[in-house]
Prior knowledge:
There is one protein chain. The chain has helices at 2-15, 17-50, 70-94; strands at 61-63, 66-68. By secondary structure, it is mainly alpha-helical. It has one domain. It has a two-stranded antiparallel ribbon. A hairpin with a 2-residue loop joins strand 1 (61-63) and strand 2 (66-68). Helix 2 crosses helix 3 (70-94). The longest helix is centred in the N-terminal third of the chain and has 34 residues, at 17-50. It is elongated.
Amino acid sequence: MTQKLKDFVDFIRTQGVIGLAIGFILGDKVKNVVTSLVNDIITPFLGLILGSGGSFKDLKLTLGAVTVTYGNFLSTVLDFVIVAAVVYYIIKGVGLDKLDKPKE
């Protein structure tokens, strides 16, 4: 039984399941925090700097009957970049990137 447990742990480490699980768990929670940071703090300041007066997400371009809401797109891209950076630095800082066993 002990050998089977050891083989199972080696399988988990070799296949990168630990990193995947950590990515799902942390990614969801970090995304919530970063989304709030972007929506509640960063985008209003960017909106003031860019002169939109409201939220950065409200920036849009109207061309005839078509409205392009590029502010919402830029806010989503900014949200993604911040989430990716935070997850990267957490994983590197805590050393979780070394949990997976390299494949031979």
